[in-house]
Amino acid sequence: MIKLVAIDLDGTLLDSKKEISSRNKAVLAQAKAAGVKVVLCTGRPLAAIEGYLETLDLRDNGDYSITFNGGLVQKNDTGEIIEKNPMPLEDIHVLHGLAETLNVPLDILSDGIVLQLPVSKEYTSLYSQLNNLLTFEPVELVDLTAERIYNKAVVAIDEDYLDEQIKKIPSEFYDKYEVIKTRSNLLEFMPKGITKAYGISLLAKDLAIEQEEIMTIGDEENDLPMIEYAGLGVAMENAVPRVKELADVITDTNDNDGVAKAIEKFVLEPLKGGN
């Protein structure tokens, strides 16, 4: 039986309008009422998903989210961090140097604050357009201190230019960091080994849930680790090819209630004594 369902947001639970359909909402409510842990698993900070948590009634004691692509595991009702893996300041300096070399903008997420570093004079970050619920703060590299928490670094820029610059990233950066495109125009850097699967594994351990009792649903490259990790990895029909290739099953698209259909079939039906 599935006891925990971890769900990506963009391209998965959210439709093309960035909304949660009534069917997805109803089915997730049924799963929660049946005792299944419904966990949003996202690259965003908690502050950027609070509206979705409210919509889904996932703000009770015992509700959790995995944020920053596995960097934090948090309680939804209080925001308390129960697991964390931040980046050290020296990594921010290293990534700042890479951004200078690539001539791309660089934003650093520090909990709910986005630190905007003035790296490129030619290209402006698009991150504020992608996450307008966050607080943005222009800073200089020299002003950053080791005491501050740094969750991840992001490059948000035109897709075509981003893809060209990605080709220039030296291989050693892939050895040291998780380097993942989470949207077509967004590249993220996380500490090595910090993935959505890692965050899910920590939460599952805290809740005494076994790996085979976990279902994950996603569509993008940063969902690959959790798709492979779960007892049942589900890809959206609109997922990138690699995710669909590695998933155990493929559900419908994000615009056709793919999340609800997967949960109905693999979570709720077994609970009712179905297949």
UniProtKB/TrEMBL annotation:
GO terms for molecular function: magnesium ion binding; phosphatase activity. Keywords: Hydrolase. Pfam families: Hydrolase_3. One of its GO terms (cellular component) is cytosol. Signal peptide: none annotated. This is HAD superfamily hydrolase. It comes from Candidatus Enterococcus dunnyi.
